[in-house]
Design brief:
The structure is a homodimer. By secondary structure, chain A is of the alpha+beta class. In chain A, 58% of the residues lie in helices and 8% in strands. The first copy, chain A, folds into two domains: 5-77, Glutaredoxin (3-Layer(aba) Sandwich); 89-221, Up-down Bundle (Glutathione S-transferase Yfyf (Class Pi), Chain A, domain 2), CATH 1.20.1050.10. Chains A, B: One of its GO terms (molecular function) is glutathione transferase activity.
Amino acid sequence: MGEELKLFGVWGSPFSRRVELALRLKGIPYDYMEEDLSNKSPSLLKYNPIHKKIPVLLHGGKPVVESLVILEYIEETWEGNHAILPKDPYERAMARFWARFLDDKCMPAMWMSCWTEGDAQQNFMKESKENLSILEGELKGKKFFGGNAIGLVDIAALFIAHWAGVLQEVAGISLVNEEKHPILFKWIEEFISSDIVVECLPARERLLAFFQAKKETMLATKAPAQ
Amino acid sequence: MGEELKLFGVWGSPFSRRVELALRLKGIPYDYMEEDLSNKSPSLLKYNPIHKKIPVLLHGGKPVVESLVILEYIEETWEGNHAILPKDPYERAMARFWARFLDDKCMPAMWMSCWTEGDAQQNFMKESKENLSILEGELKGKKFFGGNAIGLVDIAALFIAHWAGVLQEVAGISLVNEEKHPILFKWIEEFISSDIVVECLPARERLLAFFQAKKETMLATKAPAQ
């Protein structure tokens, strides 16, 4: 394309890491701009004036926001490279369904399981485990959610593959469990051992230190996910 | 296609009405099955076991759920008919962004403005008015959100075109205001006077009676949107 491609993200965000993973799978070079969410840049506010959130993908001066919207944009703009969506309309609909299930159900319940206590925590943990069992069922018989290759749903599930383990350790709870979710567990091992995926993941120790330092504040405010 | 096409919906739901509108715009015949949400049918539970919600579009025996996912499925399955998404990847991304803005921001704030009181209501009303001003800006210079023809965003905004006025009347508040949102107001008039759109709308009086009857319960429970 020759047009400038810039990603505004945050190192520890699974949402901007999704975009990096899609671009790397497709072999598209991009410039990365690290944002400070406590002091958002004029560029971030200019390119995402409504939500004021990362990630923002700036392509030839035009911004695309919201990670799942960006992933579809990347797929449609660089169709020839590694496909992250199947061609069949029904399978595409299923991929979109599971990506939204991850965002709307799995991530909020997991996140809140880590930053609540008592009954509220028990309820979020119960919901999380039910969601994980649903994902376990969906993965059955497949190497990746996308079949034989990493697809949209795998990219959307990056949070479960890498962040979930760190957050569980910080919160002292167990959600993704090898015994209860053997298929999901195998998927995580396979997924995060891929070279391209590894390149997109924040270092585990750095993420752990980051959330450990935030733990008290998070428990006090029960802040929703960024 | 020749394959059986069935829509499970609820007469008063803007979500299943979206699907009806897309199918009618494309001229695709379908069978409609009215669901009773207080006594969900075995079919609904079978075809949407995770969310147990309408709408469900059953095509050749295969279910698609979640209204925005269904709309994209309809677009990709019957591409040749009235296009509800533009061809250009950037414009498609923008349409997806606005559709999600309607679902994630506009609808919840409007709904809660109607079923809360006091400070909570004032805050939701403030948020709703800000959202409406953003939509007003997006519509500027265009006949429809989709340009010259009804597109995905118009379909997603069906709630604002028809339900918002009814709910405002029930709650005794004013959100969509001709003086403050002249462009949005003109869009509503244009949109709901289209023959195909009219065919998809529940009768205003029936909707009004329905929400009036529910008002006390809604105010007491502050129930989120179905």
